[in-house]
Each structure stands twice: as C-alpha cells, then as structure tokens.
Amino acid sequence: MQLLSIHTIPLRYEIHCEPARLEMKDASAQPVASAKTQSPKLTQHLAQSQIQMDGYEMRKAFGLLNNTDFAKSRADDGVQNIQDVTQNNVDVGKQLSHIEKGVTISDIVKQKALQQPTYVTVFLPNGGTKISWTPAQAENQYDAGSTSYDWETNRPEYTYIPGSFSMKITQWPRVEIEYLGGFSYVPPSANPDYEEEITAE
C-alpha cells in the first residue's frame, strides 16, 4: 500500500527581450537655401570744367594788396625810410665836417632844396591775369552685382534606445508530498472512530 504521494512542480518563468534600436527624427527634411541677390549698379561722378582767373598780380600793381603783402610792403617801406634818413644824416654830417673849406650851412640847405627826386617810369598794370583751366571729368563705377546662397541643412536627430531584458518568475519550483495513509493510535481505543468489538457468548 502506497502511503505517500509525491508531486514535483517545476519552475515557470516568462522572459521579455527587446533589442536595441536607433531612431532617427526628421529623416525626410530637405535642405533649404536662401538666396540674396544684389542688383548691378552703375555710379557716375561728373565734374564740370572749371576756369580759374587770378588777377591778384594786376591788382597788386595798383596797390590793392592782401593782408600779408600789405604788412610786408609797409615793413619794407619802413626799413627803406630808416636807411634813407640815416644816409641823409651821414651825408649832412660829412658836409658839416668840411666847414673849414668854405662850406656853409646855408649852402648845404640850398643843395638839399635843389636836389631833384628820382623818378621811375612804370607802366600799369604790369601784371596780367593768370588763367587756369580744368577739363571736365567723368568717373564711372560699375558694380556687377552678386548672388549669394545660404544653405540651411537640417541635421537628423538620432535617439539610441538600448535593449532590455526582463525575466518574471510565475511559479517557483517545489515538491508536494501527500500522506495517503491513516493514523496509528496506541492504544487503539484512542482513535475517535474506535468502536469496541462485542463478542457473543
């Protein structure tokens, strides 16, 4: 008679495995170009012809001086006047030093009075007009224009998703032992189901 019932329950588990993958965003985006165009341009600078007439030398002959020449002329006249007066005084002094030779003061004064001034013949105006001429000029500057492109490329974004591995145990292994026999009572009368046997005489 078999008294024990032994059952072995194996281990049960679930495995979930997801491989690694690489995801790319905006893979269909196309590059975009923005163009900047500068139109051709022609720039022209014109300078008119000019005639310059300088009549200062002619005006200078009539005594119409500018400030610089006027100051220089007055200074030269002052120096010349001082030299003339000095020379005159020297000459008079020399003549007075010969009084013993019969020269009298009245003779000196008379000589000075009869002295004729020096004249210089000058034809006015003695200076002409300076004429200068600048021809007309035309300067052309041509800009051929340009076109520039600015490319904007959208770089795709990559996202790396690592793989995953998971295991779930749904049933742990075990051994179940079931006793199929009954209990042994000593003495037998200790069994709750014990019934005493009655023998007939």
* Continuous helix count: 3
What spatial form do the alpha-carbon principal axes imply?
rod-shaped
The sequence of SSEs as H and E is: EEEEEEHHHEEEEEE
**Biggest sheet features:** 2 strands, antiparallel
Which percent range describes the beta-strand content?
A: 35-45%
Low-confidence stretches: none
Number of domains: 1
Q: Tell how many strands the DSSP assignment holds.
A: 12
Q: Which whole number gives the mean pLDDT?
A: 81
User: What is the CA-atom radius of gyration, in angstroms?
Assistant: 71 Å
Distance between the termini: 36 Å
Structure classification: alpha+beta
How are the strands ordered across the major sheet?
1-12
Helix content: 10-25%
Protein name: DUF6470 family protein
Pfam families: DUF6470
InterPro entries: DUF6470
Description:
The chain is of the alpha+beta class and 201 residues long. It has one domain. It contains 3 helices and 12 strands. The chain has helices at residues 56-61, 67-96, 105-114, and strands at residues 4-9, 12-18, 21-25, 32-38, 41-47, 50-54, 130-134, 137-143, 146-152, 157-161, 164-171, 174-179. The strands form 6 sheets. A two-stranded antiparallel ribbon has the order 1-12. It has a two-stranded antiparallel sheet with strand order 2-11. Strands 3-10 form a two-stranded antiparallel sheet. It comes from Caproicibacterium argilliputei. InterPro entries: DUF6470 (IPR045527). This is DUF6470 family protein.
